[in-house]
Amino acid sequence: MKNPHAPIASIAKRFLHQTLRRAFSFFPRALRFAVYRSFVDCDPHPDKRLVLKIAETREELEACFRLLHDAYVGSGFMQPDPSGMRVTIYHALPTTTTLCAKFDGKVVGTISLIRESVFGFPLQSIFDLEEIREHKGRIAEVSALAVHPKFRNTGGTILFPLMKFMYEYCTTLFDTRHLVIAVNPNRIEMYESLLFFERLKENPVDHYDFANGAPAVGACVDLRLAPGIFKRVYGKKPRRKNLYRYFLRTRLPNIKMPSRRYFTTNDPVITPDLLDYFFNQCTPTFQNLSEREKGLLHSIYNLPEYKPVLPTTFSESDFRLRHRKHQRYSLKCPGSFSVTGPEKTDVYDLQVVELSEHGFLAHSRVPLPSNIWGEAAILLGQEEKSVTQAMVVRGKHKGLRGFYGFRLIEPDLPWRKFVGVLKSGMTHEDLDNASRFLAD
Question: Is the pTM of this model over 0.70?
Answer without folding.
Answer: yes
